[in-house]
């Protein structure tokens, strides 16, 4: 296991150097420690699997449009899955269950776009395909920049889904917070406007929130309606409500969706609404930031 960890550290050093732009055109002559036979088999299989998944056959041109290398910013739900897989991978290493390590590692590569690009870059460096490695490095930098922007998500968001506009603004409540006890209290105001021209009215049925704190811990909150109501909005009407969210870290994010049902006016009675399709209206990500100057 010690040899395996040393081997992994070598890969990390190579990846980190490439990410900083230090791509050497000469293969390192430093001898790598030999891994145990079981881990060596895992490593060979991993290289085959990852090469096929990420960069194709040796000699293929790097294609950033491939599904495995498509740039994608990890969402909070993706981060939660990645975090769970990393914890499971650590347990497998501690238990020296190398076959399981390979399975979890492959799942991690599937779930984490940044990890896929890091592995692709390491393979490209190993095979002296430096142009491919540089492209992978650029993808990693782009993902990191987008992740940083997400962590500093603005306290406002606006999104329109099928004519339903959802505007949100969050405010940190200093007087109701206790930073020394890791208690950070935020309120947010939501305005929902019916701009849907294809339906005579819509009704909000339920809500679903994904709350992520600064340490990547996620919580899902679901329920019927909002603040005990299931408002019906005709064309042009709006509904505004306020709620609150406590966090254990200074920063976090919220996102989610509202479930709506569309209505049309009955042909026999203009006061009667006939239900049609149900759909989800997105609540785009907004930040909860106790460190903001706002």
Outline the structure in words.
The protein has 294 residues and is α+β, with helices and mostly antiparallel strands. It is built from 6 helices and 9 strands. Strands 4, 5, 6, 8 and 9 form a 5-stranded antiparallel beta sheet that branches.
Keyphrases for this structure?
294 residues; globular; five-stranded antiparallel β-sheet; four-stranded antiparallel β-sheet; disordered N terminus; alpha+beta
Q: How many helical stretches?
A: 6
Helix content: 25-40%
Radius of gyration, CA atoms, in whole angstroms: 25 Å
The low-confidence runs, each spanning 5 or more residues with pLDDT under 50, are: 1-73
Tell me about the largest β-sheet: 5 strands, antiparallel
